[in-house]
């Protein structure tokens, strides 16, 4: 089987405050190529001609899609998938409609709520302010947790574009990785720990290695001591998969409200994927090797 690993380059020009590491697909690309002997990796900036040209040149049976932000634009994440669909080439991960939906957090919440999946409420203090159409925790800072309308307006200054303002959930937070062809057949839940007064998983916590925010929000996978809670968290995440019609792999962020009810914070159909990181780490926690995960994703390509 001929596999083309298609990935997006780190953009030379980025929005103010965004780090290059956020867009660096290098570790994931290297891991995928190592897991798929004979595969070819091609990086693209995001232009239509680059994508079409790479597919025409290499004539792959499957494209391993690692294009996350063409031209440094996360809102264009679904464009490459749409081009591959138009060309009739199977590719890994979710389709363009799912990628486009999950980029718009308010619309995703509406879809989840319509399916009976618990989500954070609007118009409740304390609240969290975050960009409505971004990913990678961009725009989220410690002062994104607000107790008043004035604080909300100050928090909005961390980013441009529409804001999503929703209740702060004070309970435990979990990152659930799910895997399967079209159904969430496998999964693992890691818990984000909040130490030294941390309450939110911020942009710095995700990307700025060595900062207090990064050091005080570690992830652990030993969450099986509470079977009832784990079942509820996994059920919420699987419901989110089905609601957005995911494929291949998906990350769902789930957090408990004040009554202990797990509510879905975010749905990411194109999560981090590298050995020992993101969905790769979750698969390893389930007992798979990274290479095994990659081979399964290729088998599940649609």
Task: Kindly describe this structure.
- By secondary structure, the protein is of the alpha+beta class.
- It folds into three domains: 3-91; 102-118 and 168-299, ATP-grasp fold, B domain (D-amino Acid Aminotransferase, Chain A, domain 1, 2-Layer Sandwich), CATH 3.30.470.20; 127-167, no CATH class.
- The chain is built from eleven helices and 13 strands.
- It has helices at residues 26-35, 48-58, 77-87, 96-103, 105-114, 149-155, 203-207, 212-215, 227-244, 279-285, 290-299, and strands spanning 3-8, 40-44, 62-66, 127-131, 145-146, 163-167, 173-180, 186-192, 219-220, 248-256, 262-268, 273-274, 277-278.
- The strands form four sheets. A five-stranded antiparallel beta sheet has the order 9-8-7-10-11, sandwiched between helices. The protein has a three-stranded parallel beta sheet with strand order 2-1-3, sandwiched between helices.
- α1 crosses α11 (290-299) and α3 (77-87) runs antiparallel to α4.
- The longest helix is centred in the last third of the chain and has 18 residues, at 227-244.
- The protein is globular, with a radius of gyration of 19 Å.
- The model has no long low-confidence stretch (mean pLDDT 95).
Query: So, CATH architecture of the largest domain?
Result: 2-Layer Sandwich
Q: Tell me the domain tally.
A: 3
Please report which band the strand proportion falls in: under 5%, 5-15%, 15-25%, 25-35%, 35-45% or over 45%: 15-25%
Helix content: 25-40%
Low-confidence stretches: none
Read across the widest sheet, the strand sequence of neighbours is 9-8-7-10-11
Query: Class by helix and strand content?
Result: alpha+beta
CATH class of the largest domain: Alpha Beta
Distance between the termini: 14 Å
Give the SSE order as H and E letters: EHEHEHHHEEHEEEHHEHEEEEHH
The CATH homologous superfamily of the largest domain is termed: ATP-grasp fold, B domain
Major sheet: 5 strands, antiparallel
**With helices defined by DSSP (H or I, 4 residues minimum), what is the helix count?**
11
Radius of gyration: 19 Å
Number of strands: 13
* CATH domain fold name of the largest domain: D-amino Acid Aminotransferase, Chain A, domain 1
**Mean pLDDT reading:** 95
Shape: globular
């Amino acid at each position: 089987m001929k596999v083309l690993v298609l990935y997006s380059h780190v953009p030379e020009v980025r929005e103010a405050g965004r780090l290059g590491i956020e867009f660096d697909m290098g570790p994931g690309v290297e891991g995928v190529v190592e897991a798929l002997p004979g595969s070819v990796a091609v990086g693209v900036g995001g232009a239509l001609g680059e994508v079409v040209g790479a597919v025409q040149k290499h004539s792959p049976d499957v494209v391993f899609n690692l294009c996350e932000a063409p031209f440094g634009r996360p809102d264009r994440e679904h464009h490459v998938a749409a081009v591959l669909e138009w060309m009739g080439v199977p590719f890994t991960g979710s389709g363009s409609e799912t990628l486009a939906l999950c980029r718009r957090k308010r619309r995703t919440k509406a879809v989840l709520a319509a399916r009976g999946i618990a989500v954070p409420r609007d118009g409740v203090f304390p609240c969290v302010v975050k960009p409505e159409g971004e990913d990678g925790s961009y725009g989220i800072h410690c002062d994104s947790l607000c107790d008043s309308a004035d604080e909300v307006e100050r928090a909005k200054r961390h980013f441009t574009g529409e804001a999503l303002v929703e209740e702060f959930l004070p309970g435990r937070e979990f990152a659930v990785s799910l895997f399967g062809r079209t159904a969430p057949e496998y999964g693992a839940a890691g818990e984000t720990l909040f130490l030294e007064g941390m309450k939110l998983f911020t942009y710095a916590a995700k990307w700025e290695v060595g900062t207090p925010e990064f050091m005080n929000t570690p992830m652990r996978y030993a969450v099986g001591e509470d079977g009832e809670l784990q079942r509820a968290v996994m059920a919420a995440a699987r419901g989110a998969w089905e609601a957005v019609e995911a494929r291949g792999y998906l990350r769902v962020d789930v957090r408990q409200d004040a009554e202990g009810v797990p509510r879905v914070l975010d749905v990411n159909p194109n999560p981090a994927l590298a050995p020992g990181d993101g969905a790769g780490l979750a698969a390893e926690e389930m007992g798979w090797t990274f290479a095994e995960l990659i081979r399964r994703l290729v088998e599940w390509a649609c």
